[in-house]
Design brief:
Layout (H helix, E strand, L loop, with lengths): L11 H11 L7 H13 L1 H10 L1 H9 L3 H31 L5 H17 L11 H29 L5 H28 L14 H24 L10 H18 L4 H22 L1 H8 L4 H29 L1 H20 L5 E2 L2 E2 L13 H31 L5 H13 L4 H13 L2 H5 L1 H13 L10
Antiparallel strand pairs: 1-2
Helix pairs in contact: 2-7, 2-8, 2-9, 3-8, 3-9, 4-5, 4-12, 5-7, 5-10, 5-17, 6-7, 6-9, 8-13, 11-14, 11-15, 11-16, 11-17, 11-19, 13-14, 13-15, 14-15, 14-19
Length: 468
């Protein structure tokens, strides 16, 4: 769940293609391999603490006191970051594909990311002056988070020894979920449930929510050190950066020109681009919806994050089993349809309404999620985590089946591009619709459009291997 766009283990076919490309080699030492996987996983705390569960909710309800306007502002900030990622990802991907050194670029992402993540501490309740700098820090953090993935992933074929590429990729994904659980527990034990909060942070001034950026920055920086010390860099080439960019972009253009000959795979990429926007909306705005609509506390959001992490991990295992039983296309459509149903449920929930039916508040509130709307919202969001994770797993398996064998790497490059090229559209749509309708629930409904459109296009896809 941590990396909802391109996280998780590589599918077997893609791993085999990468291994064939790199040839037989011993890879890095066991320590170097683990250092790579640990850095890959150490990116997760930023995503779950800042983007999904804690800071996004705080920003959209407390930093910007009007929750409707707060959701719109957060949407515009995240869409700005996603738009810059969409522009830069093909260029940086071209540099990575050209085979040059990756560590200098990873160091650059750490140098950018650590101060930007830390600077969100200055997002004080109801602030007006200086808000633009906090927003800029969020955008910078997003760029560091996403760009670090490009170069970290590009190191993998040279880090993994023969026969362990898929395992090491999966280890990075597993450590990401494990680190997410650790930071959730730290937040609860150090601040939410501690009568004497660690470092003297004041909950009344929302200092724990403001501190999550520094916590994520520390995690990012600390786990970068073993990677730089123990993991060998990819071998350099004689190409300069401009030459690498030119070569990579020409290769991308050549692949796009060939896509017309593989209409089935192209149709799937179009469908995936649509429903992936729905996935992004459902997961990245979890905290914003819950805090703004149901007024959930940070403790409630952290508890939801813990539950979602467990559900997502189990869903990853279950999706692989389902894929082998009913096929990749049927599994993908099932997961997208499940997300669509969960999204409809989310649209039906308010503090006094469930399934568009008014409900009475509990006579004696008890438990962490006391009301029926709280419980339904929690179940719906956990369902989203399950269906999104399953959809990511089976979609990549389907891409492996539809891609021509001789062009597997090229088509997975397009698959990755389809996850970033339009990733700003979903958040931007939420911002525009929330502003026009002056309603958070109207913004929630954006996901329905993307999921339904993607599901309809998926009906045109045929699950059979491409020729070539």
């Amino acid at each position: 769940m941590a990396d909802i766009v391109e996280g998780g283990p590589l599918p077997a076919a893609e791993a085999a293609a990468l291994e064939a490309r790199t040839g037989a080699h011993r890879g890095a030492s066991p320590l170097g391999q683990f250092a790579w996987a640990a850095f890959d996983g150490a990116r997760s705390p930023y995503n779950v603490l800042v983007n999904i569960f804690v800071f996004s909710a705080y920003f959209s309800t407390v930093v910007v006191p009007d929750s409707v306007r707060g959701q719109a502002v957060w949407s515009y900030v995240t869409s700005t970051g996603a738009f810059l990622v969409a522009i830069g990802a093909p260029i940086l991907g071209a540099i990575a594909d050209a085979g040059g050194r990756r560590k200098p670029w990873l160091i650059a992402t750490v140098i950018l990311g650590v101060p930007c993540m830390s600077l969100i501490w200055f997002a004080t309740p109801g602030m007006s002056h200086g808000l633009i700098w906090v927003m800029a820090a969020i955008v910078g953090s997003t760029l560091a988070f996403e760009y670090s993935a490009i170069f970290c992933n590009a190191m993998l074929p040279n880090v993994a020894p023969q026969g362990r590429l898929g395992f090491l990729s999966g280890l990075g994904f597993a450590l990401g979920n494990f680190f997410g659980v650790l930071v959730f527990l730290f937040f609860l034990l150090a601040w939410s449930w501690n009568p004497h909060p660690l470092f003297g942070l004041d909950a009344a001034r929302h200092e724990p929510e403001r501190a999550v950026g520094m916590l994520a920055a520390a995690w990012f920086a600390v786990f970068a050190i073993p990677l730089l010390l123990f993991t060998p860099d990819s071998p350099g080439t004689s190409r300069s950066v401009p030459q690498a960019v030119s070569h990579g972009l020409k290769t991308l253009a050549g692949t796009l020109s060939k896509l017309g000959h593989y209409r089935n795979a192209a149709t799937f990429l179009g469908a995936r681009m649509l429903y992936n926007e729905g996935f992004i909306v459902l997961m990245l705005f979890t905290g914003v919806f819950a805090a703004g609509i149901l007024h959930w506390t940070p403790t409630m959001l952290i508890a939801e994050g813990l539950i979602n992490s467990v559900v997502a991990a189990l869903a990853g295992l279950g999706a692989g089993w389902l894929d082998t039983r009913i096929g990749s296309k049927a599994s993908s459509m099932l997961f997208v349809g499940g997300c669509l149903a969960a999204n409809l449920v989310l649209c039906s929930v308010t503090p006094d309404m469930v399934f568009f039916i008014h409900v009475a508040p509990p006579l004696v509130p008890h438990g962490l999620f006391p009301s029926l709307p709280d419980k339904v919202f929690l179940v719906a969001q956990c369902s989203c985590a399950m269906f999104v994770t399953g959809g990511l797993v089976t979609s990549r398996a389907l891409m492996a089946k539809l891609s021509p064998r001789a062009m597997l790497n090229e088509f997975f490059g397009l698959f990755a591009l389809s996850g970033t090229a339009t990733s700003f559209i979903g958040p931007l749509s939420i911002g525009v619709l929330t502003t026009l309708a002056h309603s958070q629930r109207a913004g929630v409904a954006v996901g329905i459009v993307f999921l339904l459109s993607g599901l309809l296009v998926m009906t045109l896809v045929k699950e059979h291997p491409a020729e070539g």
